[in-house]
Amino acid sequence: MKKIINSNYFYAFIALCCSLWLFFFVSTPGVGSTRDSNQSNTSTVTKRATLTVPLQLQADVDKYYITGYPENVKVTIEGPSALVTATKNTQNFNLYLNLKDLSIGQHRVQIKESGLNSELTYSIKPKYVTVNIQRRETKKFAVDVDYNKESLATGYEAGKTEVSPDTVTVTGAASEIEKIARVIVKPILPKGIKSTFDQEVLVQALDKNGKTVNVTLDPQTVHVKIPITIQSKQVSINLKQQGDSNNSNLSLESDVKNIRVFGTQSQIDAINSSVDIPVDVSDVTGNTKKSIDLGDVLGNKVAFTDPETISVSINTGSSSSSTNNSSSNSANTNNSNNNSNSTNNSSSTNNDSTEDNNNSEQ
User: Which helix (H) or strand (E) holds 143?
Assistant: First the structure.
């Protein structure tokens, strides 16, 4: 036994056993391998995500005008969680329509992808689209302005409309360009507007029936300015008696001598430098004042006036007549007194003369 233990073969056998034990210990899963196992499990978990992606065209867009396709489509991807998340964040792939070999007309085309990782599965919605390929044409059009003039406040007028820019570039299928009857803007003016309209307005291309034509406009909006003003001038007023009255001594007076009238250019041109203001005196029996509404008096000759009303004093002359009668009576009384005094004086003179004659005879 001692020989066996001291033998080189024994030590070699022991070394072999230890080596085998260490090998199996290291190879057996344990605490140290848990983390690697978890990472392996995580990488195999699947995930799904739906993305909205721009749809690209592979076509000669300088020569052809293409319509009918959506700007964006949805794609659902599925695969390893980490890969799905990375793809969702970067979107480093494309969805496209290959139209290079298609002729003019309508075509049903499948949407294709490029750049997606091969470990991902995907589905695109919609899978097919119908496109219309037409010969491309570009043309310039002047911009017309169409608005409701009845929106202006009474008496106000619109001046020359300014449009900037006054022309737009229209691009589309040649067949659509031919349909265009006019390119217009339709500004919507607030009801009763009294000040200049100044806004950006959407441009529209319309056919002869007033329907929108499917084309691209550049620019899509233009700046529209519509000056809105009202004309005015100052005129004097002439108070005119209106209606029958028994008093022939009536007089009309007002502190207001001049007014300003407002209206359209044609209304202002038709107004003279002075206007007659009729005052109804048919119901006047004594001194009084009346408020005259100038808008009612001038009617549709003007839009409005400043001031809108005036106060008119109507004098019947009754106070001055009483004064004159009193003065007349006073004068008559004085005349009577003077006549009486003259008679008395005459009588006294005659008496004195008689007395002198009698004395002379004696």
Answer: strand 128-145
Quick check: pTM over 0.70? no
Q: How far is CA 311 from each of CA 46, 289, 307, rounded to the nearest angstrom? A: 92, 7, 11
Q: How far is CA 288 from CA 16, 118, 246, 320, 321, in A?
A: 142, 104, 15, 15, 17
18, two tokens: 């230890």
Termini Cα distance of the chain: 232
pLDDT in tens, 290-330: 999 998 989 889 999 999 999 999 888 765 433 334 333 44
Given this model, what pLDDT does residue 25 score? 63
Name the CATH code of domain 231-319 (choices 2.60.120.10, 2.170.120.40, 2.30.30.30, 3.90.190.20): 2.170.120.40
Q: Determine contact, residues 291/184, Cβ cutoff 8 Å.
A: no
CATH no., domain 136-228: 2.170.120.40
